[in-house]
Amino acid sequence: MRRIVYAPSFDREVEDIAISIEERFGERSRREFIAELARACRNVAHFPGIGLAHHGYRTSCLAIVFRQNWIFFDYDDEKVEFLHIVDARRDKPNVALRD
Questions:
Q1: Which of 98, 40, 95 is closest to 65 using CA atoms?
Q2: pLDDT per residue over 32-80, tens digit each?
Q3: What are the boundaries of each domain within the chain?
Q4: Secondary structure of 15-56 in the HEC alphabet?
């Protein structure tokens, strides 16, 4: 399995989502979201080829769908770096992502 690296941008975006979940649905839901996300990231680390290159966002990163979000990542033989998690309902042209 490739080493998993979380970019600071990814950590901030996950924390924002987790806070929103906790405010709306409680701490248990927040913990479940974080656990599910960690499993999804491990799966990507095992099989990064599942990522989509044609997702409609202006970035060269690959992405997968997780719940109602897009998770953007890059990878090589040694690591997978998770860069962004973005609500899929956002207007794609208005989302600026770092490659």
A1: 40
A2: 999 999 999 999 999 999 999 988 888 889 999 999 999 999 999 999 9
A3: 3-94
A4: HHHHHHHHHHHCHHHHHHHHHHHHHHHHHHHHCHHHCECCCC
Structure tokens at 25: 């649905």
The residue to which tokens 């970035």 are assigned: 59
The distance from CA 69 to its chain's CA centroid, rounded to whole angstroms, is: 7
Domain 3-94: CATH superfamily is RelE-like (3.30.2310.20)
Distance CA 57, CA 70 (A): 10
Q: What is the pTM of this model?
A: 0.89
Cα(66)–Cα(68) distance, integer angstroms: 6
Q: Which residue has the tokens 């839901």?
A: 29
Contact status, residue 57 vs residue 63, Cβ threshold 8 Å: yes
